[in-house]
Amino acid sequence: MSRLPIDESRRLFSFSRPGTSAAQAAQPWWRVASVPERFPNHAEGAPGPSPLGTGDGSAALPKLLPVGVFSQCMKGERIRYQQTGEFHFLTFSSFRRRPYLSTVAAMELFEDALERVRLRSLFAVAGYVVMPEHVHLLVNEPGRGLLSRTVQALKLSVSMRSRERPFWQAHYYDFNISTHEKFVEKLR
User: DSSP label at 18?
Assistant: First the structure.
């Protein structure tokens, strides 16, 4: 993966896909959004951290922490709101929805990988469900790094220790939990 120049004025990081032409390489396919000076709070009408999170969202943020993580795909841009102090309901599927997680050994492999990544990234797992072809996780944001990198590490850990290639579908679904009612709903 070749790295394109970093636009310091907007703090956008761009990378190009391997094996692309110069014209295609000029089009970024992954970038981190610019960082606001602070999060808006609930009193200002913006969805932000709730009592489930780590604060009221009004504190100033360090300059280098991304709030929205963007990735370009065939359907357009995917925006993820991270580092908001909220819990996240994640869903990701096995490659072409094949039942790779249907055996007890595969489920235990996933659970072991989840525990290893949890300890390394310092996040809490409020609940999870492992089904034959997909997984649901209810987690808070990691104490180390971005949630997207944590999911990448989890998926990589499972796929490297499994015989199936490829193991996972690209990407994952991320739903921010901003209220206690949603937290309870997703936990059921």
Answer: T
Q: What is the DSSP letter of 95?
A: G
**What sign results for the dihedral spanned by CA atoms 5, 9, 11, 12?**
negative
For residue 168, what are its two tokens? 């996972």
Contact in structure between 164 and 95 (CB atoms under 8 Å): yes
Q: Which residues contact 79 (CB under 8 A, 6 or more apart)?
A: 33, 68, 69, 70
Q: Is the C-alpha dihedral spanning 74, 76, 183, 109 positive or negative?
A: positive
Q: What is the CATH number of domain 87-187?
A: 3.30.70.1290
Could you state, in order of their start, the residue ranges of all structural domains in the chain? 87-187
pTM of the prediction?
0.62
C-alpha 148/C-alpha 121 separation (Å) is 11
49-75, pLDDT tens digit by residue?
A: 444 444 444 444 444 444 565 544 556
